[in-house]
Design goal:
Radius of gyration: 22 Å
Helix content: 40-55%
CATH class of the largest domain: Alpha Beta
Number of domains: 2
CATH topology of the largest domain: Rossmann fold
Bound molecules: S-adenosylmethionine
CATH architecture of the largest domain: 3-Layer(aba) Sandwich
Number of strands: 10
Order of helices and strands: HHHHEEHHHEHEHEHEHEHEEHE
Distance between the termini: 73 Å
Length: 345
């Protein structure tokens, strides 16, 4: 009996392995597979179930968005002073537009400790730093009725500053099935044609096709890349450092903006240090802005601090973000652990 069974068992194992290897490709593309309850199987094929549980709608307008979007706009404003066209890339774009009065946003109420708190604190501020003013004006332009009900994510903020005459281009990547559909339909309303593209692709991988960017009409190659993962997958930290290392070689003059959470996790702690080392090794200037709102009395956990690391920042950025944080920091501070600072090379 054993002699009969044993070869069959091996034949079955071999056939099963061959089927698995051939099925891996289609499975990776299969949406149902992403949602499999068997997380270990998903990880085996390179994906992680939790990756698709992150929805930026729960977090839109929070303190991290305030820091990220103020830095993004101030960087863009400077880059747009040069006439030559620029390629803008958002590797982790999200849905593009978010309702601040919708169910998602109301559930976490994160904008209460971010945008809304800033808005009410600013009523008492006399001299509003330019980057904050710019940020609030952009948000106001999406809310013609006065109340902040719609929050523009990074794709829409970038679109706002794009110039038709310079032929700027915007390349957006979002993997979440629902958010990529929302992003595509939100962007379609802009009627921007081929100047803006939305792809449901891995943003890290997509950079390979886009950098170095095509030359502008004046012959210069210019690009700004925002890398804003949700970091729900531990490997995102290493991926960020790896792409920065690679593209500082392949396109060293690009401006790279990396958002990262400040949380008690070794990978998170190491990321800004690695980015600093990589920039120094490539002899490229960098800037690191951080904002920690601290723990409040009714705090139920959640993210309290984050940073923006910018490689090849505009020379004006340090001064601008410092002035902005001098207002944003005290406005959003809640308690123990509050801090804000800007350091640079
Ligand atoms: C923090 S949110 C982006 C927010 C957006 N950049 C903004 O500022 O408005 C991160 C997004 O990345 C998406 N995502 C996660 N991994 C991805 C990947 N490898 N490539 C592209 N998108 C990814 C998530 O679905 C999520 O919508």
């Amino acid at each position: 009996m054993f002699l009969f069974w044993e070869p069959l068992r091996w034949e079955f194992a071999a056939t099963f392995t061959v089927v698995c290897v051939f099925a891996a490709g289609p499975l990776k593309r299969c949406e149902a597979f992403y949602y499999t309850k068997n997380q270990r199987l998903a990880e085996l094929f390179g994906y992680h179930q939790s990756m698709f549980s992150y929805r930026h709608a729960f977090h839109a307008g929070n303190h991290a968005d305030v820091l990220k979007h103020i830095t993004l706009l101030a960087t863009l404003r400077h880059l747009m002073q040069k006439e030559a066209g620029i390629t803008l890339i958002d590797t982790h774009a999200g849905a593009g537009l978010y309702r601040l009065d919708g169910d998602y946003s109301q559930k976490g109420a994160e904008a209460e400790d971010g945008l809304f708190k800033l808005l009410s604190a600013l009523e008492k501020v006399q001299d509003m730093p330019e980057p904050i003013q710019d940020y609030l004006e952009q948000i106001a332009s999406f809310n013609p009725n006065g109340q902040a009900k719609v929050y523009p994510g990074s794709p829409f903020l970038m679109h706002k500053l794009m110039r038709h005459e310079s032929r700027d281009r915007l390349r957006l990547f979002e993997l979440h099935p629902t958010d990529s559909k929302s992003l595509a339909s939100n962007i379609a309303q802009l009627d921007a044609g081929r100047t803006i593209t939305v792809s449901r692709e891995d943003g890290f991988e997509a950079l390979k096709k886009l950098l170095p960017p095509p030359a502008s009409a004046t012959g210069s190659k210019r690009a700004m890349v925002l890398i804003d993962p949700s970091y729900e997958i531990k490997s995102d930290y290493a991926k960020v450092a790896n792409v920065i290392q690679e593209y500082l070689k392949r396109f060293s003059t690009g401006t790279y903006l990396v958002w990262y959470p400040i949380i008690p996790r070794p990978e998170a702690h190491d990321l800004p240090r690695r980015l600093r080392t990589l920039s120094n090794q490539a002899q490229k200037p960098w800037l690191n802005a951080t904002l920690a709102i601290g723990r409040g009395p009714n705090d139920v956990g959640g993210l309290v601090a984050s940073g923006m690391f910018v490689i090849n920042p505009p020379f004006t950025l340090k001064d601008q973000i410092r002035k902005a944080l001098d207002v944003v920091g005290p406005a959003l501070a809640r308690g123990t652990g509050k801090s804000w600072q800007v350091e640079s090379s």
